[in-house]
């Protein structure tokens, strides 16, 4: 069953720029009652909030939040519930990436940061609002942004891949739990995209038949799936193909197909990533490939 955004409370993490901002703009255009923006970059957040108000939205609630901090999540969630209400639609979009060999990752700056922002944050943010979404008994939606690399191993993305692999398992398990417990009015959608042109994966190259996607295209597809309560959306079609081949081919055969044919294993060879803006918190602003 598809729902309407009109009059509803929409909360988006990583909302100051990139795809998070596109989700926010879509919510405003479709008449959301309130749009709640979470982001670490306070300056970009205020700029986005001001521009959304210029679009005609009156109920924009920007909060500077470090989603890697549980106390920050819990404190801000209480503010949101008090000021804007329990979200009807929650989009866990925030994410970061570190592209390097595993042994080159710094324990805290890389490993802990990626797992906290990409994996633990969606869980903790959802946990902060889900009881209220369940109790209200009205149709609600959650979109968790994962990644194609959460289904296929990719060199120089071991920690990022682990973080998104976990998101896929958690997100779909939660969907089943809600349905089996009689709380299916809260529908969970898992977005599993390949590379997107947002700058977060600057320098990465899409595998064979998998071009870098335009952010607006992905947002449009994810938005429709979210409102319809679809369990999973994989973009583009080659993501599902790759997952299917990975599951049926023996490991040596798959390594040849992924490495020599589709060039999945070489996709991060020229990765540079987005350069942090002066005075900003760098990559903790959005999710592109997620």
From TrEMBL:
Annotated coiled-coil segments of the chain: none
GO MF annotations in UniProt: oxidoreductase activity, acting on the CH-OH group of donors, NAD or NADP as acceptor
Record key words, sorted: Oxidoreductase
Domain of life from the UniProt record: Bacteria
Cited Pfam families: adh_short
Annotated PROSITE patterns: ADH_SHORT (PS00061)
Family stated for the protein in its record: Belongs to the short-chain dehydrogenases/reductases (SDR) family.
Name of the molecule in the record: SDR family NAD(P)-dependent oxidoreductase
